[in-house]
Amino acid sequence: MYSHFVLFWSVLSGSVLSLPKTHIALSLTIGALLLYLDGFLTFRTHKKERDEVSYSEQVFERVLMYAASASLMVATYLVFSLFTALLSWFGLSALLFAYGFVRKDDIARPLSYLVMLLATVVSFALVSVGEYQVTLLGSWKASRYVIHLLVAVVLSYGHTFFLRMALADQKTTEQIQQEEALLTTFGNAVFFAIGWYTLPKIAIGLAYALFGVLWLQLGFFWKRRYLRIHAGIAFVLSGFWLLTVNMGATGVLHGVARRLLSSVPVLALWGYASQLWMDHHKDDEETPFVLERIMPSILSYMGFVSILVLFYYHAFMSGVGWGVFGLVLLAAAPYFRRQRYAMQAWIAFAMASFSVCNLAVHKSLPVWSYFLSNPALWLGPLLLVLAYALTRRFASQFEDLFAQGATQWASKWLRHIDVLYGWMFCLVALFVLTTILHMRDYSLGWGVAGLVLGSWGLIGRDRNFRWFALGLFGLAVGKILFYDIFRFSTGQKIITFISVGIALLVVSFLYNRFKETFTELLLKE
């Protein structure tokens, strides 16, 4: 073992003392060959008696190999240009892998991965610098670094293929599976980098989504979980592109139609992958990894958020678009038996309600002209009425849907999803009604609306409208007592106080007399 230290130290000292660059490179090359030879001979000597070899000797075998590879890499960098040196590093990686593959050397294969990783990091660093951000059809000076990345991808996938081919007739060991996962992860990461720096911005998301579908299919075919996880990462990256580059405020496309059309293929691939994932998990007895289990929901919500963002950057379309989108999702939820569609519909309607209320609050035109110029104020309540009708029509289906897999906090609210839509309708109706009325008519309008909605709540046996009617009555009385009263004459004030006082006494007496009846009336469905 002392001979190894002597050889290693002589190579290192010789390279340092040889001051000219060519002499240093020559010394490093000769030293690398000697180190390789010493490492291979040591490995072959200990191969038949691995159990008797000490841990320190096994470690030193690897040190010799790593030192030899580092010497060759530095030597090529000193003698040749960076472009040629990078190519030689990739060639060294391929040779080490081939030797480890043929000789079943458990040192050479990991060493080849390390050399390839270092070469790729250097290439990627050059590509990512601003002056080298070009397409594959750009100048040769800049594109050659992208070519290095392509070589790294080919080597990664090629090494993975050879590993699988060699182990086709035998059970893979844990170490080989780890190497295979490492190579695939490395190749995918480099591929993503190439796509981001070289492809046209409009095609990045589609490339990532296609790549995700490919790895998803291979993951199911080869029964490799890490491939399916890589597919999920690819889909998430395509979603990042969709929400930032394509649909964001600084997107490369302008106009709702162009953004939507460019996003349709990506959204379609997400839907296909989500369905593929769910079908596989339905028939597979293996417990899926947590990321795989939630990936269909992630894809669904990414598509949902993408469309919401698309409408957000077109203010006039936001309230109407979100409402229509929510109505479609709500109708699809009981048909496809998807709990998340109903939850997404609720989110879409909540955003549509907020948009409608926001338009109503920030009115700057006369009331009726404002309504005529902003049809969203009419369509908002109409869409919510349709949503409420759907939830009442399919009430049992929604209850069964959320009872199957809803979490504890969600099932308590969403099992009666019609309650949520009823409250949203009441909220929007209040804002729209308030917008139509003049200030002096608020009390009268709220009182009449409370009477109408309360009657509907009694006839239709809907507690949402009964509670909303009480709220409207409270608003009307509150406005009279805290606002209108200061504009009345003395006689009107006296009459108002007497009338309101008598009304409150009557209501209090009736409530105390028929408390159980009132409670049942307000709480029952």
Could you explain how this protein is built, in words?
With 525 residues, the protein is mainly α. It has a domain of 122 residues. It is 83% helix and 0% strand. It is built from 22 helices and no strands. The longest helix is centred in the middle third of the chain and has 28 residues.
Shape: elongated
What is the multimeric organization of the chains shown?
A: single chain
Q: Which runs of at least 5 residues are low in confidence (pLDDT < 50)?
A: 1-9, 14-19, 130-137
- The secondary-structure class comes to mainly alpha
Strand content: under 5%
Amino- and carboxy-terminal Cα gap: 86 Å
Helix content: over 70%
Number of separate strands: 0
Q: SSE order in H/E notation?
A: HHHHHHHHHHHHHHHHHHHHHH
* Mean pLDDT level: 73
Number of helices, where a helix is a run of at least 4 consecutive DSSP H or I residues: 22
Characterize the biggest β-sheet.
none
Rg of Cα set: 35 Å
Entry summary:
The chain has 525 residues and is mainly α. The chain is built from 22 helices and no strands.
Features of the shown structure:
525 residues; mainly alpha; 83% helix; disordered N terminus
Question: How would you summarize the topology of this molecule?
Answer:
Elements: H1 2-17, H2 21-47, H3 55-79, H4 82-103, H5 108-128, H6 140-166, H7 174-198, H8 201-222, H9 225-246, H10 256-283, H11 290-312, H12 315-336, H13 339-361, H14 367-373, H15 376-393, H16 395-405, H17 408-414, H18 417-436, H19 442-459, H20 463-482, H21 490-513, H22 515-523
